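For reproducibility, we list the full input for the S-adenosylmethionine complex.
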Amino acid sequence: MIVRQRAFQWTDYWIHANIVAADIEHYRVYNTGLGVLYGGDCLELLRLIRSETIDTVFADPPFNLAKNYGSRVTDKLPDDKYINWSKEWLRECVRLLKPGGALFVYNLPKWNLILGNYLMEMGLLFRHSIAINIKLGLPIPGRLYPSHYSLLYFTKGKPKTFRKIRTPIERCRHCGGELKDYGGHRNAMNPKGVNLTDVWNDIPPVRHWKFKSKKRTANQLSTKLLYRVIQLSTKEHDIVLDPFGGSGTTYDICERTNRHWIGIELESCEVIIERLENRELSLHKSEDYVED
Ligand SMILES: C[S@@+](CC[C@H](N)C(=O)[O-])C[C@H]1O[C@@H](n2cnc3c(N)ncnc32)[C@H](O)[C@@H]1O
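The corresponding predicted structure, in tokenized form, follows.
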């Protein structure tokens, strides 16, 4: 029996011709009612997305630390080649952003210093350099103990969405007592929490298997980080793009918060599809209070 494949129609899912070029359809490996995942090199695929269509870009690229992501990714480039490659995909991401859209780049402080400078040269508006306080491993002799990653936050002109977030008053993990005295103003403080700062001490590393995709050996970000970025910079039904899918943390949070998403991954997309289909991974609890 011959099964006739119905020709693809733009009406099959939410994405349409004024967001992506028809050629990108060839790379589609998965979609939901909210998002679409493309398998391929982001440098090629970003070119098939139309200018000024994306509300927020979140990018967590390989850090050039010689990690093994699979045979298609080289994570050990000479410094100048890594920087040039990063500038190439960043240039595309800036083109795709709507006016007022937000761009977040997660990387080592060493690389983000250079990339942040490039984004300013491209005319983006610097918002914050956020320190994500996570111990990076063992102390290095003759150096300070590295204990943060960098999250750059830029917008294309004045931000169109910036939602105020409050976080709970910090407490001692052991005794439950408050860590700061707030200079005698404790009673006057907002019961919904304190203003989010640009040092994020509350993002856990993804170590325990209940949070982690079983087939994934490379790093995976905490859902708490993505939840915050998405709440801060988008509203429901906005479009979030993450060109380095990994285990699909960004897409998972978009699904749970009713945002559209566009994903790209060069290596196997199986882990992402399983994660979105099964919804078995636990989330790191977020206590962020979002003011609207
Ligand atoms: C650091 S991981 C992202 C992890 C992700 N944020 C998460 O929480 O699971 C980077 C990912 O980018 C993918 N990658 C590397 N180069 C790529 C490229 N040129 N195009 C698309 N994906 C790429 C790697 O295979 C890897 O899965």
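The mean pLDDT is 90. The radius of gyration is 20 Å. Both points were considered when choosing residues for closer inspection.
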